[in-house]
Amino acid sequence: MKYSLNFFLILLAFSSCEEVITIDLNEAERKHVIEAEARTNYDSIVVRISKSAGFYNQAEFEKMNNAQVVITSKLGEIDTLIRVDEGVYATKNLKPTIDEIYDLEVVVEGKTYTAQTSIPEPVEIDSIWFESVFGDNKIANLNFFDRANDENFYRVNLYVNGERNKSIFLWMDRGLDGTNIVNGFYRVEFEVGDTLTFELLTIDETTFEFYKTLETIVSGDSSNPANPSSNISNKAMGYFGGLGVDEKEVIVTEEIMSAK
After folding, report:
1. Which of 207, 218, 243 is nearest to 166 (CA)?
2. What is the pTM of this model?
């Protein structure tokens, strides 16, 4: 499935418009929020920059339109990003490349932030199938084979008719190295005619830890909530992540819904 850049820029705000948090998280100090992703299914590396009193206080988010953003590759290629939308910057020449290492520097309101990431090789989705649970209720299952002899981290995004499900689906292969990994999506509703798009994201450990802490906060499992972990210097919130992406699309048919 092809998406416009603007559509993906909306999705890139991992929770900014979708996860509604009612707890106060480190509200005392206004901080810069940097959300940067180098994805193999993008033509550019995209960086979103905003400012908020708290990571989840959406009313306080201020888009930063006057930042200087530079990304440098391990090969020494330097790209000064251009602003493509309110608070959104993209590389002009650098394209996300598997196994490449990227250094990010953001200068905004007199503060400098740095981070580094690399893009893992994508692991492919092996298959998607459906089964009945709890009577006639249907769930979708996704299967993939972990790459052996590597420490791998994964996230799956699931879209129904182009709208991303709000749940955060994460795996790590500790104890599962080289095995078949299956996940059932129990909290996803769909019907005949719907288009389901599955994105399997192979991510680095830093990005995994960011999403893991975010998941804990969103689910309310933390008794002492704090802002999600970050790999960005100078106490900025957010992350700079490299994502290897594989994608499959399924159209829900009568046959799928009627099968036992």
Report:
1. 218
2. 0.79
> Which residue matches tokens 């994502």?
243
Nearest to 252 by CA among 193, 172, 164: 193
Q: Identify whether the C-beta of residue 67 lies closer than 8 Å to the C-beta of residue 80.
A: no
Q: Determine the Cα–Cα distance for residues 26 and 193; give it in Å rounded to an integer.
A: 44
Q: pLDDT digit string (tens) for 89-139?
A: 999 999 999 999 999 999 999 999 999 999 999 999 999 999 988 777 889
Give the C-alpha separation, 119 to 255, whole Å.
38
**Cβ-contact 99, 122 below 8 angstroms:** no
Give backbone dihedrals phi and psi of 36, rounded to 5 degrees, phi first: -125, 135
Say if residues 138 and 194 touch (Cβ distance below 8 Å): no
Burial of 105 (0-12, 13-18, 19+ CB in 10 A): middle
pLDDT for 52 equals 78
| Residue 162 CB-half CA count within 13 A | 7
What is the residue-wise DSSP string for 9-74?
A: HHHHSTTTTT----S--S-SS-EEEEEEEEETT-SS-EEEEEEESSTT-GGG-EE--S-EEEEEET
Q: What residue ranges define each of the domains in the chain, with the CATH number in brackets?
A: 5-120+231-238 (2.60.40.10)
Q: How far apart are CA 247 and CA 202, in angstroms?
A: 11
